[in-house]
Amino acid sequence: MDLRVAAYAVVTDGDGRVLLAHWNEGHRSAWTLPGGGLEPGEDPEVAARREVREETGYRVALDALLGIHSRVIPASQRIHADTPQPMHALRIIYRAHVVGGRLTHEIGGSTDRAEWFPLSAIPALHHVKLVDVGLRMAGLVPATTVGLHP
Fold first, then answer.
1. How confident is the model at residue 150 (pLDDT cuts 50, 70, 90)?
2. Is residue 73 part of a domain?
3. Assuming Cys at both sites, which of 9, 66, 111, 116 could form a disulfide with 137, CB separation 3.0 to 4.6 Å?
4. Nearest residue to 119 (alpha-carbon basis) of 130, 128, 132
5. Any idea what the CATH number is for the domain that residue 31 is in?
6. What is the extent of the structural domain holding 74?
7. Is position 130 within any domain?
8. What is the Rg, in whole angstroms, of the alpha carbon atoms belonging to the chain?
9. Could you say which cofactors this protein requires (predicted)?
10. Is there a domain that residue 27 lies in?
11. pLDDT for 92-112, tens place per residue?
12. Which residues make beta-bridge pairs with 18?
């Protein structure tokens, strides 16, 4: 089984909007929390700040560690069909706010754009379950809210 450790951020602004990145890899795409995999030896907090900057153009300060989400992805659901084994994904999720930069879109990465969304618009977006998990951890949606997204 492969192991992937990644760090993500729930970034909000003064207008109650949430910053999301549009993940577009292989034949799959959906809105997600900005973030991604740790580089070897990288501190998770550094990784979260780096990934948000790469995917959105913003520099952020981390406010709190919200939690860790653990998920095993069966081999049949992995992005690359030639991968014969499942992957254990450990997702470290932080709460963060913007301290600088400006909205820019990542070029050549796993995301192709970023946008701010009102919290009320997120249920209608095609988004990954990690968005729902992060919003629940941040206390932005009720703990009983269940996402129906991949």
1. very low
2. yes
3. 66
4. 132
5. 3.90.79.10
6. 2-138
7. yes
8. 15
9. Mg(2+)
10. yes
11. 999 999 999 999 988 888 889
12. 12, 117
